[in-house]
């Protein structure tokens, strides 16, 4: 008896292609980086780790070319800026579908599952500017997809932020849609129902902890049930699940009780804030992946756990830091595809380092650091501030990986980032004699000194980089030109979630 049972069980295990967690797991792949990884290397890395689903914010040809033939399931985004045109100009919609979907069929096939129209278009911070365009654009995209013969394979949705719903009390079961956009969201749900598509929602427990003083830390994670939100006897120990049920309740009230839900973004950053640490990220993902593997849903939707797209795959050093310094550190991998902490994507809790990116080509092993022997030390603070204005200093703020190490470390971190992002141009390591190039890695403990990836266009031609050795006046003028070009590239992707599950979080704290 017993051996037969064991044998059967083993067979079943062998037939299951991956655990529930892995099957329901996808990643967000953004590219707002000064030195993005080669998309082909990224695709290989996804496959090496058994990741089967990916969400991208733009239909970029190099990315789609790399995904072609890979069998990875793809959700492809259309930026908010296109919503107005796509809601009004059907030829433009047809052209979009032709160039970005139909072109990737046949030999160059990309396994598209969803076109995501806009990104968090009803974010409170946008003051309704996309409210009238989103649904018409979604309808046009579906129509054009259907006309082009993709209607059976590809669904249409729009990722909404968790701020589209709220609760009239503190209880998830009293969830409703935010009154100013409730009508439109319900019409969108009707549309999703008709094309059998899911409600895609982005939820950020990290931001609850970051934004609301007194938010119970354990309520952001899954492994400590000390805090409980009591909803008529149903206990919530985790704000993500309270959010999901808030949405389920709002869907029920508007006659969409069974609408599938996909978590389009959820994750935990690893640097740039006291709560953004690899330890906390590992804690969050370990808990989340175990919950996914159990495949037990939430109290109001117990049948299964929703599909989850992790935010994010890679760190992106050109993202806007308006939401906070952590914004460039959401990756479960570093910018160059190296795993940051142990994980088990199958949710079995056997954490080990994921498989890193292979065949990454780096620039020379050289760094730019503070030069103690520089003759004119008096403007060090100004030079560091200038460098930080023009590069990535997010590792220096309190709680971050290079914080609290003194002005000399501050200077080295800032000068090095400036130099590396400038493709190791000699002229970018001067700072009036206060910087020098070294061949030994200055990394110390948690404080890492990265070297950028060599991309096909990167070059050490000194004429490309602004020279930081001249007076601070000319520094500021070159700073404004370089920052305006980087903000153009940052408009090219994931919008920072400025406004979050405020109502749920606040009520949770105040009424608990
Ligand atoms: C969404 O819209 C906002 C406001 O216009 C913009 O800043 C952001 O970049 C957009 N995001 C995407 C992915 O289109
Ligand atoms: C509509 O889009 C098409 C294709 O992109 C373009 O040629 C045309 O000028 C647009 N029409 C208007 C009125 O903007
Ligand atoms: C295809 O998508 C890319 C990226 O969003 C966009 O730049 C391009 O204009 C799109 N093509 C058409 C014909 O709309
Ligand atoms: C959206 O349309 C409504 C009704 O036509 C109008 O009252 C409102 O001003 C529009 N909103 C925006 C932001 O254009
Ligand atoms: C759970 O969190 C509470 C409150 O933060 C803390 O006092 C307790 O030690 C934690 N329990 C475990 C097992 O970590
Ligand atoms: C940093 O940038 C801000 C805004 O552009 C500017 O006001 C400030 O003077 C700059 N600081 C330095 C030290 O360059
Ligand atoms: C180093 O930089 C951080 C971030 O700008 C700042 O908070 C800190 O005070 C700096 N330390 C010193 C000694 O200047
Ligand atoms: C590393 O950091 C420690 C503590 O901040 C410091 O004492 C030590 O000198 C540093 N080592 C190097 C090589 O900079
Ligand atoms: C560094 O090289 C990249 C190409 O990899 C290029 O896009 C960028 O403009 C270069 N940056 C500087 C400051 O020269």
UniProtKB/TrEMBL annotation:
Q: Which family does it belong to?
A: Belongs to the glycosyl hydrolase 17 family.
Look up and give the organism this protein is from.
Hibiscus trionum
Q: Name one GO molecular function term.
A: glucan endo-1,3-beta-D-glucosidase activity
Q: Where is this region: Disordered?
A: 458-494
Q: Which Pfam families match?
A: Glyco_hydro_17 (PF00332), X8 (PF07983)
Which reaction equations make up its catalytic activity? Hydrolysis of (1->3)-beta-D-glucosidic linkages in (1->3)-beta-D-glucans
What is this protein's record name? glucan endo-1,3-beta-D-glucosidase
Which SMART domains does the UniProt record give?
A: X8
- The Low complexity compositionally biased stretches are 469-494
User: Quick check: keyword Nucleus in the entry?
Assistant: no
Signal peptide interval: 1-21
Record-linked InterPro entries = GH, Glyco_hydro_17, Glyco_hydro_17_plant, X8
Record domain X8: where? 366-449
GO BP terms in the entry: carbohydrate metabolic process
Using the UniProt record, name the top-level EC class of this enzyme in a single word: hydrolase
Top-rank lineage group of the source organism:
Eukaryota
Task: Name the UniProt key words of this record, in alphabetical order.
Answer: Disulfide bond, Glycosidase, Hydrolase, Signal
Q: E.C. number, please?
A: 3.2.1.39
């Amino acid at each position: 008896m017993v051996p037969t049972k064991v044998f059967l069980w083993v067979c079943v295990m062998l037939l299951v292609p991956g655990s529930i967690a892995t099957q329901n797991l996808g990643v967000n792949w953004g590219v707002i980086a000064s030195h993005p990884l080669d998309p082909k290397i990224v695709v290989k890395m996804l496959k090496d780790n058994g990741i089967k689903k990916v969400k991208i914010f733009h239909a970029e040809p190099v990315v789609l070319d790399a995904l072609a033939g890979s069998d990875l399931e793809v959700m492809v985004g259309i930026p908010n800026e296109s919503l107005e045109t796509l809601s009004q100009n059907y030829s433009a919609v047809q052209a979009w579908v032709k160039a970005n979907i139909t072109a990737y069929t046949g030999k160059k096939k990309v396994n598209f599952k969803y076109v995501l129209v806009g990104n968090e278009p009803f974010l409170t911070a946008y003051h309704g500017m996309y409210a009238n365009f989103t649904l018409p654009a979604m309808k046009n995209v579906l129509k054009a997809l259907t006309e082009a013969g993709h209607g059976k394979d590809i669904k249409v949705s729009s990722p909404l932020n968790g701020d589209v719903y709220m609760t009239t009390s503190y209880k998830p079961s009293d969830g409703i849609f935010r009154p100013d956009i409730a009508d439109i969201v319900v019409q969108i749900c009707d549309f999703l129902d008709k094309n059998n598509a899911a409600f895609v929602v982005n939820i950020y427990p990290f931001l609850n902890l970051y934004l609301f003083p007194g938010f119970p830390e354990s309520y952001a994670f899954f492994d400590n049930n000390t805090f409980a939100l009591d909803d008529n006897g149903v206990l919530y120990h985790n704000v993500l699940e309270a959010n999901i049920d808030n949405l389920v309740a709002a869907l029920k009230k508007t006659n969409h009780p069974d609408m599938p839900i996909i978590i389009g973004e959820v994750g935990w950053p690893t640097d740039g804030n006291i709560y953004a640490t690899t330890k906390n990220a590992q804690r969050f993902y370990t808990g989340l992946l175990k919950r996914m593997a159990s495949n037990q849903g939430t109290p109001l939707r117990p049948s299964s756990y929703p599909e989850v797209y992790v935010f994010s795959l890679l760190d992106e050093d050109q993202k806007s830091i308006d939401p906070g310094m952590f914004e460039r550190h959401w990756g479960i991998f570093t910018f160059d595809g190296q795993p940051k902490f142990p994980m088990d994507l199958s949710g079995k809790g056997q954490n080990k380092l994921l498989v890193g990116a292979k065949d990454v080509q780096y620039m020379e092993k050289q760094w730019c650091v503070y030069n103690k022997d520089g003759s004119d030390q008096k403007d060090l603070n100004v030079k560091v501030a200038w460098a930080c204005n023009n590069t990535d200093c997010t590792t220096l703020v309190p709680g971050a990986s290079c914080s609290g190490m003194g002005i000399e470390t501050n200077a080295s971190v800032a000068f090095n980032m400036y130099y590396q992002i400038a493709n190791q141009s000699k002229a970018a390591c001067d700072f009036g004699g206060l910087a020098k190039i070294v061949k030994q890695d200055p990394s110390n403990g948690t404080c890492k000194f990265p070297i950028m990836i060599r991309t096909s266009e990167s070059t050490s031609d000194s004429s490309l980089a602004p020279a930081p050795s001249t007076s601070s006046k000319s520094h500021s003028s070159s700073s404004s030109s370089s920052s305006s070009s980087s903000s153009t590239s940052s408009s090219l992707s994931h919008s920072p979630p400025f406004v979050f599950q405020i109502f749920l979080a606040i009520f949770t704290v105040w009424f608990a």
